Amino acid sequence: MSGLLVNIDVDDLGRAVEFYCGAFELRLGRRFEGAAELLGAAAPIYLLSKAPGTRATPGSDEKRHYDRHWTPVHLDFVVDDLEEALARAVKAGATVETEVKSHAWGTIALLADPFGNGFCLLQFAGRGYDEIAK
After folding, report:
1. Do 123 and 14 touch, CB atoms closer than 8 A?
2. Does the structure show a pLDDT above 90 at 72?
3. Distance from CA of residue 96 to its chain's centroid?
4. Architecture label for domain 6-53+74-131
5. What is the reported pLDDT for 1?
6. What is the dihedral of CA 75, 73, 118, 16, to 10 degrees?
7. In 2, 21, 101, 103, which residue has its Cα 20 to 30 A from 35's Cα atom?
8. What is the largest CA-CA distance in the chain?
């Protein structure tokens, strides 16, 4: 493997750029027809403009929608100051789904972006996940 790219479907590209740059202190890279590249995370994030109601995958009849939805893949943003990052994300338009929870490895907040995608904010403590690794 030579890299990783993250792609996120959105229904409003301008609003998505504003949200992700504001919430996570990312910066706009290149613009493409119907897409925008965001830089500043461990991997580039590509926002892809996809209209609601269009087919979600070639092999299914499921249609895209931007209400809160579930997916087995989500993003975790590792932050140095969870409370500050949480405030920034909410100000940008995120919805908080649970209170901040503490664990042996650190703290976590579960949120959703304005496009129905869930994500987490993590602040590691001590040795992070090594605190619970066996």
Report:
1. no
2. no
3. 13
4. Roll (3.10)
5. 87
6. 70
7. 2
8. 47
